TrEMBL record:
Keywords: Signal
Signal peptide as annotated in the record: 1-17
Record-given protein name: DUF5689 domain-containing protein
Keyword check for Signal: yes
Length: 360
C-alpha cells in the first residue's frame, strides 16, 4: 500500500520506508546515474581519512594527529561492550578530525543543527577503538581533545556547547511539500530519495575556546562529536534561494540513492568557521530557476559570505564561487535570490575552489 510522506522545507517530518541510512566512504551507496557517481567518487577521493594510532590500555597516552589535534587518553579508559575492563594490551585508535571548511564540505559534515540553525565550529571529531578487532567503549573516562581552532578573540576564553552528529536515514518519499523559485508553497508527487547530510543535536557537556585552540571532552566512541557555538545573530532573517540556471543537473530531483547529488550548493560565512549545505531543492521551478534554498528565515540579512555552487553534468564538473552579501527581500517577496553562472572546471580546479573556502 502506497504511503504519503510530507516534506516541509523548514521542518521535515520523515516516515521510514525501509531505506538504509547513508554512510561515509566505502560504505556509501553510489547513485546509478553517471554524473552523481562521478561527483560522489570525487568527494570520497579527497575527503579526510581516519588516522590510526596505538596506545597501551593500562597506561593510556597522548596522540597527535597530522592536522594538530591532541588527544589525551587516560589509563584504564576502555572496556568491552559486555562491560569488562580492558586492563592491558595494545588498543588501536582511529581518529578522524575535521576543523576546516574544505574538510567539512568533502566529508559531508556542515555546521547546521537538526532544527536548521547555523553553528560556528570549534572542531568535529570521531574516535573509534578496538583490541584484537574487538570494538571497545569508554570506561566512564572521557578523552580530552585539544584542536587548533581558536575563537578569534584577544585573550578571552569562551565556553562552547557539545553536539552529537546525526546522520538521518535516506527516506523514500512520494509527496513533497516545498517551495518554488519564488519561495511560494508548492507540492511535487514523485518517488525520490532525499540526499541526507550530517546534522548536529546538542548534548550535555561544554568545551572551551581560547584565541588559539579549543578543548573539549569526548564521552563516547564511534560517534561524531562537535564543539560548536550557535550562530547567534540579532539581525532579521530571510530565506535564500540559489538558482543554478542551465548548470543544474535534473538528476538532483530524481532517485539518487546516496548522500550526494550531482548538483550541490554551499555557503561559507565570512571570517567564521561556519559552512552550510543547502539540501532543500526548489520544486516546480520556472526555466533557469532550478536549485536549492535555505531553511525558511534562517540566514541573517546583511550576512557576508561565499557561495560555492557545484554540478556534475554530462561527465564534466561545473562550479562557481561567489562572494555575496545577503540582501533584504524585494518589495512583495519573502526571499533573497542568488543567480549562478557556472563554468566547466577540472578535477584539480574544483578541489582548488573547495580549498579556497578555508580563507574566506
Amino acid at each position: 500500500m502506497k504511503k504519503n510522506v510530507f516534506f516541509a522545507a523548514a521542518l521535515t517530518l520523515f516516515i521510514a520506508a525501509g531505506i538504509t541510512g547513508c554512510k561515509k566512504g566505502a560504505d556509501a551507496v553510489l547513485p546509478k546515474q553517471k554524473d552523481g557517481k562521478k561527483l560522489t567518487e570525487f568527494f570520497e577521493k579527497y575527503q579526510r581519512s581516519a588516522e590510526t594510532f596505538t596506545v597501551d590500555a593500562a597506561t593510556g597516552g597522548v596522540i597527535t594527529t597530522s592536522k594538530g589535534s591532541k588527544l589525551t587518553i587516560p589509563a584504564g579508559a576502555f572496556k568491552k561492550l559486555n562491560g569488562n575492563l580492558v586492563a592491558s594490551g595494545n588498543v588501536k585508535i582511529k581518529v578522524l578530525d575535521i576543523f576546516k571548511p574544505s574538510d567539512m564540505l568533502l566529508g559531508n559534515k556542515p555546521t547546521i543543527t537538526t532544527g536548521g540553525a547555523m553553528l560556528e565550529s570549534f572542531g568535529e571529531i570521531r574516535v573509534d577503538a578496538t583490541i584484537n578487532d574487538t570494538v571497545l567503549a569508554l570506561n566512564d573516562k572521557p578523552i580530552m581533545v585539544v584542536m587548533p581552532v581558536g575563537n578569534g578573540a584577544t585573550g578571552q576564553q569562551r565556553e562552547i556547547p557539545m553536539w552529537n552528529g546525526v546522520e538521518p536515514d535516506q527516506i523514500q518519499e512520494y509527496v513533497m511539500n516545498g517551495h518554488n523559485h519564488l519561495n511560494q508553497p508548492t507540492t511535487v508527487t514523485q518517488q525520490v530519495f532525499m540526499a541526507t547530510t550530517l546534522q548536529w543535536e546538542q548534548i550535555n557537556g561544554l568545551g572551551a575556546a581560547t584565541p588559539t585552540q579549543s578543548t573539549f571532552p569526548i564521552d563516547a566512541l564511534g560517534q561524531w562529536r562537535n564543539c560548536d557555538a550557535l550562530y547567534n545573530d540579532p539581525r532579521p532573517k530571510t530565506t535564500v534561494l540559489g538558482y543554478f540556471g542551465d548548470g543544474f543537473n535534473s538528476e538532483s530531483n530524481e532517485n539518487i540513492n546516496s548522500y550526494m547529488k550531482p548538483s550541490m550548493l554551499f555557503f561559507k560565512t565570512k571570517t567564521t568557521n561556519t559552512l552550510i549545505r543547502f539540501t532543500v531543492g526548489i520544486l516546480n521551478a520556472a526555466p533557469g530557476k532550478d536549485g536549492f534554498l535555505s531553511y525558511q528565515n534562517s540566514i541573517p540579512v546583511g550576512q557576508e559570505g561565499t557561495f560555492l555552487a557545484i554540478s556534475s553534468k554530462n561527465d564534466k564538473f561545473y562550479a562557481e564561487m561567489k562572494d555575496v552579501t545577503i540582501g533584504t527581500p524585494a518589495p512583495g517577496a519573502n526571499f533573497f535570490g542568488v543567480d549562478f553562472n557556472m563554468t566547466e572546471v577540472s578535477e584539480s580546479g574544483l578541489l582548488s575552489l573547495i580549498n579556497q573556502l578555508n580563507t574566506k
